[in-house]
Amino acid sequence: MREEKLESFVLGEILSAQAQACRTEPFLKFREGELSYGEVDAMANRVAQGLIAQGVGRGDHVAVMLPNGPDIVHAVFALARLGAVAVPVNTNHRGEMLRHVLTSSDASTLIIDAAYLDRLQPLTARLSGLGRVIVRTHEATEPLHVLGKPAAPFSDLLSHGDDEPRADIAFSDLLAIMYTSGTTGPSKGAMCSHALALTCAYDSLNYLDRWGKTSYCPLPLFHAAGLWDGMMSALLSGGSIAIVERFSASRFWDDVRHFGAQVAMSVFSMIPILLNQPPTPRDSDHPLEMFYMGKSALDQPMRERFGVRSVETYTSTEAGIGAGSPYGQWRVGSCGTANEERFQVAVVDERDREVGPGESGELVLRPKQPYVITTGYYGAPEATAECFRNMWFHTGDRVWRDSDGYFYFLDRMKDSIRRRGENISAFDLECEVNLHPAVLESAAIGVPSELEDEDVKLAVVLRPGAALEAPELAAFCAERLPRFMVPRYIEFLDALPRTPTDKIAKYRLRAEGDRGITPGTWDREAPPRKDVG
């Protein structure tokens, strides 16, 4: 697939073509075994035929809440072949966040692993739009009911033959609704075409010279990084991808050796974790060539210790790769130069006036090709209009550009927090915390972390007369939130700082003490204090 034609970027058709060209070659690798291109193609057809038998058709929105493994890949391919729209769901979601994704996406079908079924029960009365539920790994002998309705086992989808469904699908058609972190409201579903996902995957191959190589992916496939830059890039390249359920520092290098991986899909925080591991004689005994997305500022220590490059691009769910360095022309701290084939890229001030080299501003994009950028946020026209104001897509990220056109990321202008590779909506977190009966209001901010991304700090104002200890509030959060959202730091305040328009002045919270951490801040990860005397 080295010759690019935008019109050919249709996921199901590419799988068919690659299955013909590489039928017996390994495509998906797991610790338990591997699947060839031909086997994945046949399985995608079976799942698609099974979904048709369940009543799923073109244009239907289908939420997919599955862990990393073969079935999430088969489901995504099957939906693409039907012309249905996949809605990948973060497997950490529960409570209001899960309800929000399932309802705001207008999902009519949910494919879910049995391990997550208990999260649906409290939401039964608020998920009336779900017409059918398909459950993976259900082993009970009795008929299964979910949300008060009969549910189908995922295994039933595999008994309808493997003829390829025939659907007239174009590169411009909607492939997925991918939920991204909210800024001034709940997380939003970016509408992503076949062209957007696959040009992102294709550009990743060219920028990183990944053609025909084996990638190692410990990232979740419900995010674009794992699904597009990982799985779909491997598909386009004729190479393979080794998929594991999650990142493990203790297993990382053994996995790389076992799978023979040349590229590791990563988030920034993985690299400091690996560098902090005790040195071993086998640190350079592996086939790995590069981390992507690594942090280019850590390229030198990675090369010195592991003999591996750490490479970054500027990539987003809404626009794919907006900037990247030509292979081997990387600069420390830079995410590269403009992806000029796809986009016009600029740095602008608060009034969208372009600023010069060395000046900081917001990174903005304009597409040069059709459907290589999101068509907007599903069901959120106001958020869409705000993001695309003045005919620019506003990334919400502050950067600067040097005189050679290399971009350097500074910080996030949006009210979101990035922790351990996950984008956290401060709004979502605050909504959950504010449900505690002792809490009057709260504000979540990102504070610097030793692991490159951020840690979560929660500033809390209690209701008059209420009493609450930080460990108790942390336990409350742990019961209701994904683990990556549970705050590390908590501080109780008499009042939150305000702007003249009565908004919470989070910049003032970040400026307190040592970059947001004050003597009154409780740290969940601090060692327990020992009594003296």
What this model shows, in words?
Helix 1 (11-21) packs antiparallel against helix 2, helix 1 (11-21) packs across helix 3 and helix 5 (194-208) crosses helix 6. The chain has 533 residues and is α/β, with parallel strands linked by helices. The termini are far apart. The strands form 8 sheets. A 7-stranded mixed β-sheet has the order 2-1-13-12-14-15-16, with helices on both faces. Helices cover 25% and strands 25% of the residues. The chain folds into 3 domains: 6-192, Rossmann fold; 315-412, Roll (Luciferase, domain 3); 416-523, 2-Layer Sandwich (GMP Synthetase, Chain A, domain 3), CATH 3.30.300. The protein contains 13 helices and 29 strands. The mean pLDDT is 91.
List the helices and strands and how they pair.
Layout: H1 11-21, E1 26-30, E2 33-36, H2 37-54, E3 61-65, H3 70-82, E4 85-88, H4 95-104, E5 109-113, E6 132-136, E7 145-146, E8 149-150, E9 152-153, E10 174-180, E11 188-193, H5 194-208, E12 214-217, H6 224-237, E13 240-243, H7 252-259, E14 263-265, H8 270-275, E15 290-292, H9 299-306, E16 309-310, E17 314-316, E18 320-324, E19 337-338, E20 343-348, E21 360-367, H10 381-387, E22 393-401, E23 407-412, E24 416-419, E25 422-425, H11 426-433, E26 439-448, E27 454-462, H12 470-480, E28 489-492, H13 506-511, E29 522-523
Parallel strand pairs: 1-13, 3-4, 3-5, 5-6, 6-9, 12-13, 12-14, 14-15, 15-16, 27-28
Antiparallel strand pairs: 1-2, 7-8, 10-11, 17-18, 18-19, 20-21, 21-22, 22-23, 24-25, 26-27, 28-29
Helix pairs in contact: 1-2, 1-3, 2-3, 5-6
